[in-house]
Amino acid sequence: MKVAVFSCKAYDKEHLEKFNNGKHEFSYLTPHLTKLTALLASEHDAVCCFVNDQLTSDCIEILASVGIKYIVLRCAGYNNVDLDACEKQQIKVVRVPEYSPYAVAEHAVALIMDLNRNIHRAFSRVRDNYYLLDGLLGFDMHGKTIGVIGTGKIGICLIKIMQGFGCHVIAHDVHPNDKVKALGVEYKTLNELYTQSDVISLHCPLNADTHHLINDTSIGKMKKGVMIINTSRGGLVDTIAVIKGLKSGQVGYLGLDVYEEETDLFFEDFSNTVLQDDVFARLLTFSNVVITGHQAFFTREALDSISKVTLNNLTALESGDLEKACLIPLS
Ligand code: NAD
C-alpha cells in the first residue's frame, strides 16, 4: 500500500519503520492534512493522519478525487473526520482504538499531582535558591472524591490508580460499565458528580453531546476550588468559562493536555514568535494552571503500539480482510 503520512514527526517515521519491514511504502509529509494540502496525497492509496489533521468534507472530496481509498488514523479519537463525507466518497476509515490507556491515565495523574503539590512552582523556586514553602500547600489525595466522566479504557485505568491513592471514586458515563461497578465505583448523574467531586477528570470523546460539557453552568454546580483535568479533547471545556471560574476561585486548579484551539499551536515550535492566542495566553498567567501540549499519549509503549496497529490496519485493508481492521462504522 502507498501511504501519505501527514503531520509526520521524526518519532512517527522511526516507529512506523521499526515494524514495517518494507511491506508498505510511506511518504513522510510534515504538513497537516487540510483541504489546502490534500493534493499531496495524489498517487497514494491511503492517508495516515493524526489528531490535528482536518478531514473536513472539502478535504475528503479532494482525497477521493485523487483516488484515496483509505483514511488510516494513528490515534483513537476521530472527531476531526467528517464521517458522512467519507461514506459519501466510499472512503474507509480505520483508527487505533487502544494503544496505551495507561499512558493517558498516568499523564492525568501527573497533572493532578503537579497541581496539588505545586511541583511546577516549587521547582522554579528551588532553581532560584528560594526555599520558602508559602503558597505550596497541598492536600492529601487519600479520602478525596474523584469524579471520572467517561469510564472507557482510559477512565478505568485512572479509576484504578486513584483507588490506589485511597480516593473515593465516582463516575458518569452514558454507557455504565459492569467492570467499573465491580471496582466499587458508583455511577452518578452529571449533577451529582459535579456537586460531590474534589477532582473532575474528563475521559469521554468529543461529540455534539459533550462539546463544552464544562461550561459556566456546570462549573457553577461544582465544589468551590474544584480541580478540573482534561486529557481528552479540548472542545470538552469552554475555555472562557473556565477562565472566569479561575478568576473567581470557583475553579481551584486546572490541568490541560488538550485545548480547544490547539490545532494551529500544538506539536510545533513557535518559540521565536509572539503567541497570538490571547485566551491561551490568559490561561498561562494562572499559577494554578498546568498545560502540556497533547503529550499524554507520548510513551515508548504507546508509540510502538500505534505503529503496530496502524501497520496491521493497512495490511488488513490491502488484503480485504476487513474483520482484522479497526474500522470506524459509517452510518
Ligand atoms: P473509550 O471509547 O474507551 O471510552 C470513552 C467512554 O466515554 C465510553 O465509556 C463512552 O461510553 C463514554 N462516553 C461517550 N459519550 C459520553 C458522554 N456524553 N458522557 C459521558 N461519557 C460518555 O475511549 P478512551 O480510549 O478511554 O479515550 C477517551 C478519550 O481520550 C478519547 O475520546 C480521546 O479523545 C482521548 N485521548 C486523548 C489522548 C491524549 O494524548 N491526550 C490520547 C488518547 C485518547
From TrEMBL:
It comes from the Bacteria. Residues 109-296 form the D-isomer specific 2-hydroxyacid dehydrogenase NAD-binding domain. Residues 4-321 form the D-isomer specific 2-hydroxyacid dehydrogenase catalytic domain. Keywords: NAD, Oxidoreductase. Transmembrane segments: none annotated. The keyword Oxidoreductase applies. Pfam families: 2-Hacid_dh, 2-Hacid_dh_C. SUPFAM superfamilies: Formate/glycerate dehydrogenase catalytic domain-like, NAD(P)-binding Rossmann-fold domains. PANTHER family: 2-HYDROXYACID DEHYDROGENASE HOMOLOG 1-RELATED (PTHR43026). Belongs to the D-isomer specific 2-hydroxyacid dehydrogenase family. This is 2-hydroxyacid dehydrogenase. The lineage of its organism: Bacteria, Pseudomonadati, Pseudomonadota, Gammaproteobacteria, Alteromonadales.
